[in-house]
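Customer escalation, tier 2.

The customer says the design service returned an amino acid string that "doesn't look like it belongs to this structure." They asked us to rerun it and document both sides in this ticket. The original structure tokens are below, unchanged.
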């Protein structure tokens, strides 16, 4: 029993202040906690209160760190969902000011591993200095990371304009048509910090961590995962797609009761024939109206039944 207990780890989770990132990190936290590891989930008070109200996770210790004030950032804002896109750079500046508080926590909490996001690019270097292992967990898939490129590519400034991201990169060695539309990159430019770009942040997160993982699986993206291992020069481990927790009890401990909406959707999907369902994701901070969902369904297939769209829209 003692040797088994010694394998249990204290893991700190440090996600970016966007709901899609927070929820993905929470799902990973639940999985690790159910394995018996101690989890410290670090975020700001408002975000932690939101997570607590939406998901009862008694196995996770939520660590609240007040977000420092920054000129240009509304006083009550603590996540991207509360800001227009041109204000997001101020949120990134405020997040960077959490570095002393997070460093203090890492130094005095007995953490063994840190799972961090790309915005806090300084975390893996701090972890190395303190003798703690770190993992960069990307909430996007492997093909997205391949498109962005290696840390050296990110820091080379070869792609300086939004137009440079509208073509498939030369290092992609498998068939792919993945590229951004120009308006997508123009919009992203508006949310980048002018002092530290997202490309610099991602490069630091990747090159200074022990290994990289992402929300994907080799069954879907075997070529992309293999190429990431090559261009990163370090281990790359896909975590899977992180469906919502559905089991009410794990190891005799009452955990989340599961996502009831996911149970309904899963039952609906299991009744469909293979290759008969189209999945479209809008992101966690977009809420299309029911009317818009119906229009989209008709646009894909004029004879498409609307029950599934109505369910998803809710």
């Amino acid at each position: 029993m003692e040797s088994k207990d010694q394998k249990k780890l204290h893991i700190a989770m440090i996600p970016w202040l966007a709901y899609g990132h927070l929820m993905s990190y929470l799902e990973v936290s639940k999985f690790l906690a159910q394995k018996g590891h101690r989890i410290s989930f670090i975020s700001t008070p408002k975000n932690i209160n939101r997570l607590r109200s939406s998901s009862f996770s008694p196995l996770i210790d939520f660590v609240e760190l007040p977000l420092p004030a920054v000129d240009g950032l509304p006083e009550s804002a603590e996540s991207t969902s509360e800001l227009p896109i041109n204000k997001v750079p101020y949120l990134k500046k405020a997040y960077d000011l959490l570095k002393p508080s997070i460093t203090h926590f890492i130094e005095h909490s007995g953490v063994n591993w840190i799972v961090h996001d790309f915005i806090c690019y300084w975390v893996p270097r701090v972890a190395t200095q303190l003798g703690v292992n770190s993992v960069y967990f990307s909430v996007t898939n492997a093909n997205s990371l391949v498109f962005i490129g290696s840390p050296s590519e990110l820091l080379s400034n070869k792609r300086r304009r939004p137009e440079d991201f509208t073509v498939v990169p030369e290092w992609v060695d498998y068939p792919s048509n993945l590229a951004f539309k120009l308006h997508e990159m123009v919009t992203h430019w508006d949310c980048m910090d002018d002092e530290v770009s997202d490309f610099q942040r991602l490069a630091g997160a990747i090159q200074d961590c022990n290994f990289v993982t992402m929300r994907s699986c080799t069954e879907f993206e075997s070529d992309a995962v293999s190429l990431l291992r090559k261009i990163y020069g370090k281990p790359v481990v896909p975590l899977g797609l992180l469906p919502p927790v559905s089991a009410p009890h794990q190891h005799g401990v009452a955990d989340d009761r599961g996502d009831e909406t996911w149970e309904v959707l899963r039952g609906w999907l299991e009744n469909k024939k293979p290759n008969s369902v189209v999945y479209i994701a809008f992101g966690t901070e977009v809420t299309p109206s029911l009317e818009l969902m119906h229009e989209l369904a008709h646009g894909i297939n004029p004879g498409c039944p609307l029950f599934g769209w109505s369910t998803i829209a809710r």
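Tier 2 assessment: The sequence is consistent with the input. The first strand starts at residue 10 and ends at 14. DSSP finds 14 helices and nine strands in the chain. Sent an explanation to the customer and offered a walkthrough call.
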